[in-house]
């Protein structure tokens, strides 16, 4: 007779057993389910009983006055409970008891102390914890020894002409006023409120207090020879700059201002601390790339590593100018750390973009990091698009012109932009409009004015020997942007200006009439000056510097103004960190000789932080790098 087959929980059939096959393991398999359940119940009841006896039966060690962890006590406990718990459990239990008694004793002693004694004790404890934390923070992460690329022209630039020297001194004085005011009223905060005379911050820095102005200003201070101020900033960074904070920051902004600022400070001064901090920050930014496509989120929480996108961006998209403006800093991070991840992340973005269709050859500003699809078909050389194009060109320049893929991508993009976005107004002003779903909006932003400098910088090496054409295009954009300044009451440029219905290079809407100490127009003047030495660029730069000093300077620093067309403007009460990083630096360079930061050796990131040229081979072979870099 065969017993019916049993169906185990897994659902797989167990073969029927013959009566002679009743050895122990097989016999267990033949038990009925209900029998198994009863056995299990009995077993668990027994275990519970043992535990209960072990923990809750009276402990005679106290009665006997025997120390809890004595060997005799262990034996007695075993006998008492009637079961045999392993001695590790007993040792653990006894240790808990000893600790408990010690804590009770300490508490009793504490209660005997006076309030003042207790306070002093707490204070000592606190300082010890702070000291320990500091020590922990100070231990730098060991980084591989990497040769310092040859850095040239960091201390030069004295102009020969006395009037130019005077102007340069004035710019240095403005820098000192901006820095000293921040030092006095906003130290350690991200930015300064120069009228309220207190710290300021915006959502790009989350709720952090990371001294953005200090980091952003360092290399300007260094170039200007303000070495005490530089040292002061360095000390703050050594002691306070900590990126392990629960703050949701903009990946782009923090990269261009902090990573770029720290790397530049490192290359200029050779101080290791800046390199270490830059790498610590970079590690915190990496989780932003954890998306289905590898296109990073716009924001990342520095502590948790959780990323997300701006709520206002089209269909949950990441922004072209944000994920497309990481290349320069990330290449240097790979060089300095030997960690290929940084380089791979930015190259992955480039490859992904190269595979995508581009409407009319244009790159839309929005790309969804989950689906890898474009959002709205808007293209801009101003906000949301600008520095993506800038970094393609600068990737090529920074690689000592070896990254020809970047150059080709730049050339193709600019060709499409010229075809669809660049026009001449009736009054003969060349402008770069905004492309919105096949329609050209005849409006240009202050941000777009940087493109004059970019065209000039990219002239050399342009295809079909169009260098002259791009230098001319740069000059035309510089002229248009100068007009946007010249047509205002304050001689400062508005945020955006139109080329419509008889109006040219002027803002129409009230909310486009502000000037927030932005650098782009002065940046273009500087590049144009370097490539042409036409004195008008120094003249225009000086006009802007004077207007800033006259209308934006207050006793507590420099402030943006709300309406450049009003002779009685109100202030926005913000001294932006990029005013010290970019606006004043470009002005200073404009009135320096060309041997300060020569463009053959340095490439400025989009926040005006200079990074040395790094031949592509440097990423794989440090030795060849040293002989190649000039
Ligand atoms: C800066 O932070 C950078 O130049 C960025 O690329 C664009 N805008 C600001 C200054 O206007």
UniProtKB/TrEMBL annotation:
<dbReference type="Pfam" id="PF01532">
    <property type="entry name" value="Glyco_hydro_47"/>
</dbReference>
<feature type="binding site">
    <location>
        <position position="606"/>
    </location>
    <ligand>
        <name>Ca(2+)</name>
    </ligand>
</feature>
<dbReference type="GO" id="GO:0004571">
    <property type="term" value="F:mannosyl-oligosaccharide 1,2-alpha-mannosidase activity"/>
</dbReference>
<keyword id="KW-0175">Coiled coil</keyword>
<feature type="active site" description="Proton donor">
    <location>
        <position position="495"/>
    </location>
</feature>
<keyword id="KW-1015">Disulfide bond</keyword>
<keyword id="KW-0812">Transmembrane</keyword>
<keyword id="KW-0378">Hydrolase</keyword>
<keyword id="KW-0106">Calcium</keyword>
<keyword id="KW-0735">Signal-anchor</keyword>
<comment type="similarity">
    <text>Belongs to the glycosyl hydrolase 47 family.</text>
</comment>
<dbReference type="InterPro" id="IPR050749">
    <property type="entry name" value="Glycosyl_Hydrolase_47"/>
</dbReference>
<dbReference type="InterPro" id="IPR001382">
    <property type="entry name" value="Glyco_hydro_47"/>
</dbReference>
<comment type="pathway">
    <text>Protein modification; protein glycosylation.</text>
</comment>
<feature type="active site">
    <location>
        <position position="520"/>
    </location>
</feature>
<feature type="coiled-coil region">
    <location>
        <begin position="97"/>
        <end position="128"/>
    </location>
</feature>
<dbReference type="InterPro" id="IPR012341">
    <property type="entry name" value="6hp_glycosidase-like_sf"/>
</dbReference>
<dbReference type="GO" id="GO:0005975">
    <property type="term" value="P:carbohydrate metabolic process"/>
</dbReference>
<dbReference type="InterPro" id="IPR036026">
    <property type="entry name" value="Seven-hairpin_glycosidases"/>
</dbReference>
<protein>
    <recommendedName>
        <fullName>alpha-1,2-Mannosidase</fullName>
        <ecNumber>3.2.1.-</ecNumber>
    </recommendedName>
</protein>
<keyword id="KW-0326">Glycosidase</keyword>
<feature type="active site">
    <location>
        <position position="386"/>
    </location>
</feature>
<feature type="transmembrane region" description="Helical">
    <location>
        <begin position="37"/>
        <end position="57"/>
    </location>
</feature>
<dbReference type="GO" id="GO:0005509">
    <property type="term" value="F:calcium ion binding"/>
</dbReference>
<feature type="region of interest" description="Disordered">
    <location>
        <begin position="138"/>
        <end position="162"/>
    </location>
</feature>
<keyword id="KW-1133">Transmembrane helix</keyword>
<dbReference type="GO" id="GO:0000139">
    <property type="term" value="C:Golgi membrane"/>
</dbReference>
<feature type="disulfide bond">
    <location>
        <begin position="449"/>
        <end position="481"/>
    </location>
</feature>
<keyword id="KW-0479">Metal-binding</keyword>
<dbReference type="GO" id="GO:0070062">
    <property type="term" value="C:extracellular exosome"/>
</dbReference>
<comment type="function">
    <text>Involved in the maturation of Asn-linked oligosaccharides. Progressively trim alpha-1,2-linked mannose residues from Man(9)GlcNAc(2) to produce Man(5)GlcNAc(2).</text>
</comment>
<dbReference type="GO" id="GO:0005783">
    <property type="term" value="C:endoplasmic reticulum"/>
</dbReference>
<keyword id="KW-0472">Membrane</keyword>
<feature type="active site" description="Proton donor">
    <location>
        <position position="253"/>
    </location>
</feature>
């Amino acid at each position: 007779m065969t017993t019916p087959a049993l169906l185990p929980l897994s659902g797989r059939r167990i073969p029927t057993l013959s009566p002679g096959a009743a050895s122990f393991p097989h016999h267990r398999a033949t038990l009925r389910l209900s029998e198994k359940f009863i056995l299990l119940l009995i077993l668990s009841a027994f275990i519970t009983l043992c535990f209960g006896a072990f923990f809750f039966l009276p402990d005679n060690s106290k009665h006997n006055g025997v120390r809890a962890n004595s060997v005799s006590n262990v034996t007695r406990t075993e006998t008492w409970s009637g079961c045999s718990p392993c001695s590790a459990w007993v040792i653990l239990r006894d240790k808990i008891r000893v600790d408990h008694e010690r804590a009770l004793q300490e508490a009793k002693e504490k209660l005997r102390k006076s309030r003042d004694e207790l306070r002093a004790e707490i204070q000592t404890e606190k300082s010890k914890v702070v000291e320990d934390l500091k020590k922990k923070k100070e231990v730098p992460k060991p980084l591989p020894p990497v040769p310092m690329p040859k850095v040239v022209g960091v201390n030069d630039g004295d102009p020969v002409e006395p009037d130019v020297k005077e102007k340069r001194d004035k710019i240095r004085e403005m820098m000192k006023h901006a820095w000293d005011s921040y030092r006095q009223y906003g130290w350690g905060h991200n930015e300064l409120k120069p009228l309220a005379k207190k710290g300021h911050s915006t959502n790009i820095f989350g709720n952090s207090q990371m001294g953005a102005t200090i980091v952003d200003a360092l290399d300007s201070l260094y170039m200007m020879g303000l070495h005490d101020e530089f040292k002061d900033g360095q000390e703050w960074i050594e002691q306070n700059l900590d990126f392990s904070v629960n703050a949701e920051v903009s990946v782009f902004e923090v990269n261009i201002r902090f990573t770029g600022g720290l790397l530049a400070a490192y290359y200029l001064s050779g101080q290791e601390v800046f390199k270490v901090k830059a790498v610590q920050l970079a590690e915190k930014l990496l989780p932003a790339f954890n998306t289905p496509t590898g296109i990073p989120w716009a924001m990342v929480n520095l502590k948790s590593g959780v990323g997300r996108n701006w709520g206002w961006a089209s269909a949950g998209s990441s922004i072209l100018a944000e994920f497309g403006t990481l290349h320069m800093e990330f290449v240097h991070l790979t060089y300095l750390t030997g960690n290929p991840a940084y380089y791979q992340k930015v190259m992955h973005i480039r490859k992904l973009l190269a595979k995508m269709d581009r409407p009319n050859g244009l790159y839309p500003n929005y790309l969804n990091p989950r689906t890898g699809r474009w959002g709205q078909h808007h293209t801009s050389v101003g906000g949301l698009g600008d520095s993506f194009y800038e970094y393609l060109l600068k990737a090529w320049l920074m690689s000592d012109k070896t990254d020809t893929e970047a150059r080709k991508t730049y050339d193709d993009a600019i060709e499409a932009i010229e075809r669809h976005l660049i026009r001449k107004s009736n009054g003969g002003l060349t402008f770069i409009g905004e492309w919105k779903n096949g329609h050209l909006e005849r409006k240009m932003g202050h941000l777009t004015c940087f493109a004059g400098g970019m065209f000039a910088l990219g002239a050399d090496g342009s295809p079909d020997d169009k260098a002259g054409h791009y230098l001319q295009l740069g000059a035309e954009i510089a002229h248009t942007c100068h007009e946007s300044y010249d047509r205002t009451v304050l001689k400062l440029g508005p945020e955006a200006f139109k080329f419509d219905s008889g109006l040219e290079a002027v803002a129409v809407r009230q909310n486009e009439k502000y000037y927030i100490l932005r650098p782009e127009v002065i940046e273009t003047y500087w590049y144009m000056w370097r490539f042409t030495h036409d004195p008008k660029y120094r003249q225009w730069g000086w006009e802007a510097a004077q207007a800033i000093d006259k209308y934006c300077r207050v006793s507590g620093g420099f402030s943006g103004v709300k309406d450049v067309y009003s002779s009685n403007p109100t202030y926005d009460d913000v001294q932006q960190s990029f005013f010290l990083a970019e606006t004043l630096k470009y002005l200073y360079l404009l009135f320096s000789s060309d041997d300060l930061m020569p463009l053959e050796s340095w490439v400025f990131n989009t926040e005006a932080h200079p990074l040395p040229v790094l031949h592509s081979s440097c990423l794989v072979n440090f030795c060849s790098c040293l002989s190649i870099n000039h």
